[in-house]
Every structure is written in C-alpha cells, then in structure tokens.
Amino acid sequence: MNEQTVQLTGKPGQESLWRLTWRNFRRHHLAVFSLVLLIALGTMAIFANVLAPYNPNDIDPRNPLVPRGTPQPPSAEHLFGTDNYNRDLFSRALYGMRVSLGVGFLAMLISIGVGVLVGALAGYAGGLVDNVSMRVVDVFLSVPSFILFLALNAILEPSIWNIILILGFFSWMDVARLVRAEFLALKESDFVLAAHAIGVSPRQMVLAHLLPNALAPIVVAATLVVPSAILSESALSYIGLGVPPPDASLGNMLEDAKAWMLTAWWMWTVPGVLISIIVLAFNFVGDGLRDAFDPMLYRR
Amino acid sequence: MTRYLLRRIVQMIPLLIGISILAFLIIRLAPGDPTVVYIDPNKPPPSAEDLARLRARLGMDDPLPVQYAHWLVNAVQGDLGFSLSGRRPVAAEIGERLPNTLLLGLVSLLVTIVISIPVGVLSAVYRYTLLDYAITFLSFVGLSVPGFVVALFLIQFFAVEMRWLPSTGMHDVREQYSGLRAVLDVAEHLVLPAIALSAASIARWARYQRSSLLNVLTQDYIRTARAKGARERRVLGLHALRNALLPMITLGGLSIPQLVSGAFIIEYVFGWPGMGRLAVNAALRRDYPVIMGVTMISAIFIVLGNFLADLAYHWADPRIRYE
Fold it and tell me: What number is the ipTM of this complex?
C-alpha cells in the first residue's frame, strides 16, 4: 500500500476556488490584456485632475478671444485636438472617462444590491414571494426601458446621480434571476440540509452559506452590467438627456460633435473610440470570467 | 396545445397591466407639473383659476389610482389620451409613426438573420482558424461600439464622403416620387439606419449561432451520421444546422426589447419619422400621454414577440410538450 501525504491548509474550499479561477482566467490572454487596459484607463480617470493638461471646461487660454472658435485638429499642444469651444479634448476625454466609468460602476453596485436582495428573497422564501418577485422581474424585462429613461431624465433635474439611480434600478433583473436560480439549486444540496439540521438561522444561512456559493454568477453579471450602463449613459447624453453640460461625459462629447461631423472628425472619433474600447474590454473580461468560473470547462 | 395557447394569452394581460402600472407610476410620481406643456409662452400667463380648471379637466386632481383606472379604461378602448404638444389624439400620432418603425425594425431583423446565421455557421465549422478568430473579434467589436456611433460612422463615410446614400429622413424632400420610384426612395433612406440598428444584433446572433452549432456538433447523432458515411455537407445541413437553429428562435424573441430601444436612438440620429423620434420629442416636452402611449405600444410588441417566439419554438421542436 502506498503512503500518501495530504497537506491540509487553512480554508481549502474557498481559497482554491479563487485561485483556480485566477489560474483559468490567466489563460485568456485577451481577457487579461483587457483587465490591464481597464485598470490603466480607470487609474487615468481617477487621476484625471492630475493628468489633464488643461481645465476640461475652459476655453483655450491661448485663444481667449475666440470662445466659439472652430475646432482645432490634434497637435502637440492639444493631443486629441479641441472642440468647438476650443476646450482641450484630451482633458475632456480624461474627465469624461471618469464620469462614464463612475456611472457604469455605481449603476452596477445598485443593480447588484437590488438584484441580490430580490433574488435571495425569492430563492430562499419560495412560494408566493418567489412567484410575485419573478412576475415583477418579467414586468421590468418587458418594459421598453429606454423610453422611461428618456422620460425620467426629462422630468427629473438633469444630474449624474439621477442617471446612476435610473440605470441601476433598470438593470438588476438578470442578477435577481441568477441569484434565485442558484439559491433554488443550493437549497437542495446536502450542506444546506445539514446546516438546517443544526439550526442555523435564516440570516446566517443566506449570508454565510448560500450567498458565497452564488458569487460566481454575480461577479460575471456585474462585469457585464457596467458596459451596458455605459452604453445607455452615452446614448442618453447623446440625445441631450444625460450628463448635463458643461461637465464632460463620453456621451455628451459625442453630442457636442453632432454639428461638426463633416469638419472635425476628431471630435467624435475620440469619445466614440474610447467608449468602444471600454465596453469591448469589459465584454472580454466578463467572457474570460465566465469561462474561468466554469469548472466543467477546465477541470482536468 | 389549445389550452396552452389560451393560458399564454391570458398570462400576457397581467404582464401588460404590470408594465402599464410601472410606467404610470414613474411618469406621474415624478415632480413637475404637466400643465406647463399647455401654456403658450407667447400669450399672457393664465390665471390661477384657468390652471385649476385645466387640471380638473385633465383629471389631475383625482387620486392616482383613479387616474390610472381612468387611463386603463380608455386605453382598452383604443383611446390613449390627447397629445399635449401635438394637439391631437395620441393614437393618431402613434398610428402615423408605427408603420415606419415596424418597417425599420423588420428590415433590421431580416438583415440580422440573413447575415448572422451564415457567419455564425462559418465561425463554428472553421473554429480555431483565422476566419473564426476574425469573426469572433469582429462580433466583439460589433457588440461594443454603440449603435449611434456606428450610425455616425456610416453617415460620415457613406453619406458625407462618398455621397452614395442619404443620411436623414425617409423621403427625398426635393422630389415628389410615385410608384416604384417612391419605394426605391424609401429603400435608399432605409439602408444606413437598418445597418446601424442591426450591427449589434448581428454580432450577438453570430456568437450565439456559433456556440449553438458547436454544441450540436459534439452530439452522438452527428458522430453516427458521419460514421455511416454521410457527406459533411449533409451532416451539417441536414443533421446539425436544423437543431442548432432552435435556440436562435428563443434569442429572436429575447432580442425584441433591444431592437426597440436601439430603434429609438437610431431613429433619432437618422431623423427617421418613427415612434422613437416621437418618444424622444415627447420626453423633451414632457408630453406624458404620448410617453405612456409609446411605452405601452412598444411593450405590446415586446410581449407579443416573446409569445410568437415561444410558439415558433413549439412548432419547430416537437419534443417540447406544454401542458
């Protein structure tokens, strides 16, 4: 009979899931590259006030006499050129990224909060609560939300916070469904039955036993809520019902470019390319995470 | 089957009522006085009594549930209220725009199907080749570039630089075409909006088709078909593709809300005279009855689309049995 040494370390279960996931994730070169890119862009956005060469809302100090001048093409002085108010587009892009990423991130936090709450309640309580919650999810999924975004933004005072709230409260449905499905499956598992048997309180059950095991789909869904919120924000700002001027967001920079389509290509290329890169990177990271969390795909 | 049909149709009603309550609450609970839309800025401001009379006539002094019940009873009878800014019934405004939106939506759906399915099949059949990687990368790009940025790019390139296609509206305003020429005129105006609207769904559908076909190709009956010596063409076309198309039906139903939302902004960018432009203008002017009407008509199409997708799925896959 062979002797086998088994090493037991602290908390094997939890640790190995995250380590396994990270190991799988690293194989997705595109996802890793996207993650690095997002961290870099996020850092630039956070330090926009340090990195921006000009005040993003100031007209070009060198041209104080031309407040409504023609946009200047990219040059050494203005890396991305200027817009029609002679504001430096590089500085505006940095601040716009800060707003767009912030809106996406905070809307994601709201949608995770609401989604986990509803999904956990429905999945844990079951019965009537479950039924009613899922009908509410159906309603939110079938409502043409973009019209209501438009209406709400027109009715409420235009502000970044309102946009975050609106986008967050209309994007929690997928999270709720995932959490509910996960809870329903977990409720039948042996460890939950065992926990019940030893008299674990409902609160403890949800927080300590069910939720940690439902974390993987939540993380993937969270990663994918951010880009869709950024896309909605930019569409709303483009219509003029989003982030109010003069503050820059990638969407309202596109709105500014509307009248200058023919003459100043850089005005719409800069925000357009930035939005696309950010959304693309989030999609790649989400895809990589989904694959990395899926044990069927990689376990050998 | 009949019982299933009936049950599904009956289920649509509470869903639509739920949607209408949600929309009604959002629109009515928001601060702001809708009577301001009625006030003509060129005339002397109305007296407080006039405003009170107007509020009473619009039923805005009633409690919310009463207002909602009032709206619902009228809406069921086809009366969606009176457009404050258009100064005519909402139903007439929507009726005028709906065919244009449907035209744009259906053409985009057709473009999506015709392009995405062959592309997805190619990507799956030649998986892990350069072609597959190129298609995958392009689909991610298609998913990531916002529809209206695609629209801006199309306008810049095809309308401004090349002058091949018109960039705005639905008809050439300089000409009065009739007959076939008029149809061609509309078709010409439709090309760019339809491409912009379908870009994202083409990408999504192609990815879906790829993974669905890859899934089917690992099934035992495909190996059986190959083992008995069927040619690859036959295996793909007859055995694999038919089964791989099934999930696409569900995806079709699920895509309708995105198509509706996408249509709104695309219509705005291209000046397409559809419901989306109506909704944007209504939102900007706080024209509540129009917002409510457009929301409900779009919701009906979304709910109906899901229902039809379910039916199509049932028809295509006899293994599915509904009680």
Answer: 0.81
